[in-house]
Amino acid sequence: MPFENRNVLVTGGAGFVGSALVRRLLREKARVTVLDDLFTGRRENLPESGLEFVHGSVCDPAAVEPLIARSETVFHCAARNIVVSTRNPREDYETNIGGTLNVLLAARAHGNVRVLYTSSTSVYGNPRYLPINEDDRLSLLTPYSVSKLAGENYSMAFFESYGLPTTAVRYSNIFGPGQDPSNPYCGVVAKFVESLFAGKPPAIHGDGNQSRDFTFIDDAVEATLLAATSDRAVGEVFNVGTGVETRVNELAEILIRLTGASVRPTHTDRRDVDNIRRRVVNIEKTRRTLRWVPEVTLEEGLRRTVEWQRAEAARPRP
Ligand SMILES: NC(=O)c1ccc[n+]([C@@H]2O[C@H](COP(=O)([O-])OP(=O)(O)OC[C@H]3O[C@@H](n4cnc5c(N)ncnc54)[C@H](O)[C@@H]3O)[C@@H](O)[C@H]2O)c1
Where do the NAD-dependent epimerase/dehydratase domain residues begin and end (predicted)? Predict the structure, then answer.
């Protein structure tokens, strides 16, 4: 990967995806700076040394501009999540739209900065057809999907209007080691594993027949790095998923087996946010253009996640 000695900024780099990207970029010998307001991210998610950490917000142009001025690539991962966005759309708007505009404006002013925008498959809402292609009809059911799409649209418009090399990846339910179960907004996998370790049944919203396309973190990171470096990716949007549809009931069963817990899942009310019935994405475009395939099966990814969460739970905390 061509990141050796490259100056890279990761916004939201103390979060789940951002910190995994940072660790990988450091292995590639990039010079990494992180900008994060520690809203959900934690400094402890990152190595203590070998990178520059700036505590600040993407909403603040004065924080963003000097960092972008010395970057060659920006991974823009800072975002308010779907739960916070649904509760407080203005906060979502300020970070997810305003913060993205700050990043793009600074990149345009500086010139010659490659921008990788991390979007979400939530822009598809309840799809008409499965698996979902990038150019299928979008359906924006939450303030979060509105803001994530706005960030994507701005990214594409900055390419078309100003020639800024931008690419967007639409992530589908990323899970894996590093997803902190103490973060109240973490994904379903981390939550289920935490319950099972506590001897409690995983609480499934609704009948559990809702499905998602669960993507292992290392595969998502690899796709993201390729999207930020491939010439053919500029001005393009890519699904990052697996093409495999998994019902939440199946997910719970696998995790019960892997943790060895002797509980049965319980069913609670339907979730009040992100209430999508079925989601699985088509990854052909990503596969062909970026020459990428997800390598970690759901079972293997869950096994690694359970192991990591077990080790974390046993680790003495300061
Ligand atoms: N994890 C997933 O399954 C998933 C799915 C779709 C899209 N995404 C996107 O991927 C990106 C990373 O998500 P994640 O799962 O790592 O979430 P996360 O909450 O772990 O990480 C987001 C990071 O952004 C930081 N942040 C929030 N507001 C900020 C601000 N105003 N200024 C600076 N930093 C700020 C947070 O502190 C956190 O470290 C986001 O853009 C998200 O929309 C993630």
Answer: 8-241
Alpha-carbon 199 to chain mean position? 29
Can you give the pLDDT at residue 257? 98
Cα 306 to ligand 1 centroid, rounded to whole Å: 22
Other residues' Cβ atoms within 10 Å of the Cβ of residue 70: 12
Residues 6+ apart with CB under 8 A from 48: none
Rounded to 5 degrees, what angle do the CA atoms 17, 15, 316 make? 110
206 domain-assigned? yes
**Cβ(95) – ligand 1 distance below 6 Å:** yes
Give percent of the chain with pLDDT exceeding 90. Answer: 92
Mean pLDDT, range 10-26, rounded to an integer: 98
Structural tokens at position 119: 């979007």
The number of folded domains in the chain is 2
Protein residue with least CA distance to atom 12, ligand 1: 77
Average pLDDT of 268-281?
A: 87
pLDDT digits (tens, 9 = 90+) for 203-214: 999 999 999 999
pLDDT in tens, 209-249: 999 999 999 999 999 999 999 999 999 999 999 999 999 99
State the CATH number of the domain containing residue 91: 3.40.50.720
**Most ligand 1 atoms within 8 A of CB, residue of 23, 37, 76 to mutate:** 37
Give residues with Cβ within 8 angstroms of 124, minimum separation 6.
Answer: 132, 136, 138, 139, 279, 281
By residue range, what is the domain housing residue 28?
Answer: 7-174+214-240
3 state DSSP class of 188: helix
Indicate if the pLDDT at residue 272 is higher than 80: no
In this structure, the answer to whether residues 94 and 167 fall within a common structural domain is yes
Whether residue 203 sits in one domain with residue 123: no
Q: Which CATH number goes with the domain that contains 190?
A: 3.90.25.10
